[in-house]
UniProtKB/TrEMBL annotation:
Belongs to the fasciclin-like AGP family. The lineage of its organism: Eukaryota, Viridiplantae, Streptophyta, Embryophyta, Tracheophyta. Keywords: Cell membrane, Glycoprotein, GPI-anchor, Lipoprotein, Membrane, Proteoglycan, Signal, Transmembrane, Transmembrane helix. Residues 192-220 are annotated as: Disordered. Its main location: membrane. This is Fasciclin-like arabinogalactan protein. One of its GO terms (biological process) is plant-type secondary cell wall biogenesis. It comes from Actinidia chinensis var. chinensis. Residues 37-181 form the FAS1 domain. GO terms for cellular component: plasma membrane; side of membrane. PANTHER family: FASCICLIN-LIKE ARABINOGALACTAN PROTEIN, FASCICLIN-LIKE ARABINOGALACTAN PROTEIN 11.
Length: 246
């Protein structure tokens, strides 16, 4: 009787044990949290959709600069990362027309050398100073306004918004923007070269007009030589006449 009761119980235990083992095998292991200091390249690669921005950061070596700053400074950093679709909306040939220096300035214009959370955008002073240069001279203005939790960005040429928070850890904040931030110094209207003053132009024309030409010089030289010859001939003639008379 006891054996009859034990056998079903043993089978039940074996079934539950095998079910537990199968369930554990099917449960995926959790990936370990990333270790070490933040790395902008790994952050954007993991997020995806930022291949053009990553390529420009690599060719200008801004990615290495950012990582070095993060490792050697306590100021933190804020990066506005345009997606691939943002770059595709630019006119064809826009990036190829830029010099190496302009490409570097373009990428640095997307980097603010302080950490800014979404809530801190409500109290920042405009224009923001970016790593492209000082904004006070009007070359690299970056102005931020907020409406609730929405952050609006203006460069004087482009108006866009922060679409998404890609990464933040109180040291670096990376935000996705739906347009490339175009600075005035590169993409704004170029100042034409000033025309010379009218008075200076008149003086230059007068100086050119008064200057003797090579033809005039040759002509005056020839006339002077002919006159001298005639004077000599006349002098000789007069001398011979006087000697004959006397």
């Amino acid at each position: 009787m006891i054996n009859q009761l034990v056998r079903p119980f043993s089978l039940l235990l074996l079934f539950l044990l095998s079910l537990s083992i199968t369930t554990q095998a099917q449960t995926p292991a959790q990936s370990p949290a990333p270790s070490g200091p933040p790395n902008i390249t790994r952050i954007l690669e993991k997020a995806g959709q930022f291949t053009v921005f990553l390529r420009l950061m690599g060719t200008t070596q801004v990615d290495n600069q950012i990582n070095n700053q993060l490792n050697n400074s306590n100021n933190g950093m804020t990066i506005f990362a345009p997606s691939d679709s943002a770059f595709s909306s630019l006119q064809a040939g826009t990036l190829n027309a830029l010099s190496d220096e302009q490409k570097d300035e373009l990428i640095q214009f997307h980097v603010v050398p302080t950490f800014l959370s979404i809530s801190q955008f409500q109290t920042v002073s405009n224009p923001l100073r970016t790593q492209a240069g000082d904004s006070r001279n009007g070359q690299f203005p970056l102005n931020v306004t907020t409406s609730g939790n929405q952050v609006n960005i203006s460069t004087g040429i482009v108006n866009t918004t922060v679409d998404n928070t890609i990464f933040t850890d109180n040291q670096i904040a990376v935000y996705q923007v739906d347009k490339v931030l175009l600075p005035l110094s590169i993409f704004g209207p170029q100042t034409p070269t000033p025309a010379p003053a009218p008075e200076a132009t008149k003086k230059k024309k007068a100086a050119v007009a008064d200057a003797p030409s090579s033809d005039d010089t040759d002509s005056s030289g020839g006339v002077g030589l002919a006159v001298n010859v005639m004077v000599v001939v006349m002098s000789i003639g007069i001398g011979m006449y006087a000697a004959f008379v006397l």
